[in-house]
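Quick check before the chapter quiz. The format below is the same one you will see on the exam, so make sure you can read both the input and the output lines.
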Amino acid sequence: MPGGKWHQPLYTPYALYATVDYMYGWPAYESGNGFTLAQGSLNVLESIGYLAYLYVFCMHGEGHWALVEGQRRSIRGGWAGLACLLGFSVSLLTFSKTALYALNEHFSDYRYIGHNSFSRLVFLWILPK
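Here is the expected output.
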């Protein structure tokens, strides 16, 4: 948050986003809204899942790393099944979180983003998501 210990210089651009979506700004913080903490917990699980997928692909894949015509990296056997399960599960989590953000705004009567103009909403809230 602006004025916080870690705001300058690391999170300075984030101050603009906090004015677009109040869920990540002072209004939600001051009301004790726990959505952002719950979301952060899911973000950690999502990141761990993508890192696990990358680990399986890198450590158990066969073939070339470079994009050479006719050659590609592949995974076989049980590791391929695990890679598919991880990739699908984490992608589903990403999609579900995105749908949750939109549904949360809709069912709360756009309390956190309703103050924006349409163009500001498109360029600073919809497209970045």
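If your answer matched, good. The CA atoms of residues 39 and 97 lie 8 Å apart.
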